[in-house]
Write a structure and sequence with these properties.
Length: 233
């Protein structure tokens, strides 16, 4: 008969000690592995979320605190907008006549109503907080490569601005301007294409130069312009 191993004073025998160390080691190794197995799906979800492109619903909240940059001339690469802000025909339900311009400030889009429940949509930059407005106006004048005379209030906010700047590629008014009623507001181009989709202006609506040229060629003087803060339900 094999001899029995009896511990003194209830202490574990060497064999029991080896078993306990192994069990403890297994627990110490197994718990982190178990934790990793449960947390791994969460990590995958977080990585997938971070990899998703920022939608225009989120982008529309951006209020860029940058001033005008007179003299800066954008290159062709600068004017390549993200897909949602590129000019495109979309489905659009409206009771307005074809040719009407509808500006949806919250969406950062300008629509030109088309027949058949469609509209031509342009990505735009809008007024920053405190400079947004809504109303109904008409295009009263159009200008190619407009000059720029910043109003006194703008000069006060940005003292570095020139008091006058002739039209040209580096002019913040961009390639074209469509004047809204008798107000100081315009739909115009920009030399800052990075601001499309953001709230940055003093109340005007800006498009990249290629888009404002396209709009200018489509829209006659007298066109109805509706500016809305929120989309209609």
């Amino acid at each position: 008969m094999a001899p029995q191993r009896i511990s003194k004073q209830g202490l574990p025998t060497p064999g029991e000690l080896d078993f306990m160390q192994l069990a403890r080691f297994s627990f110490n190794l197994g718990f982190p592995m178990l934790l990793f197995r449960f947390s791994f799906p969460i990590q995958i979800v977080l990585l997938a979320f971070l990899a998703v492109p920022v939608s225009h619903a989120f982008a529309q909240r951006v209020d860029m605190s940058i001033g005008d940059e007179p003299g800066v001339i954008p290159n062709a690469a600068d004017e390549q907008l993200s897909p949602q802000f590129r000019r495109q025909v979309v489905l659009y339900r409206s009771t307005e006549a074809p040719g009407t311009i509808i500006v949806q400030t919250a969406e950062r889009f300008l629509y030109v109503v088309q027949p058949g429940g469609r509209a031509l949509r342009y990505g735009i930059g809008v007024g920053r907080e405190g400079f947004q407005w809504q109303g109904l106006l008409h295009i009263t004048r159009k200008q190619e490569w407009p000059d720029w005379t910043p109003p006194p209030e703008m000069i006060e906010r940005q003292p570095y601005l020139p008091r006058f700047m002739a039209g040209g590629p580096g002019n913040p008014m961009g390639a074209r301007a469509l004047y809204l009623g008798t107000t100081v507001y315009r739909i115009h181009g920009t030399n800052q294409p990075k601001t499309i989709g953001s709230a940055v202006s003093s109340g005007c609506f800006r498009l990249v130069n290629g888009d404002v040229i396209d709009l200018y060629d489509r829209i006659p003087v007298g066109t109805k312009v509706i500016v809305r803060q929120k989309p209609e339900l």
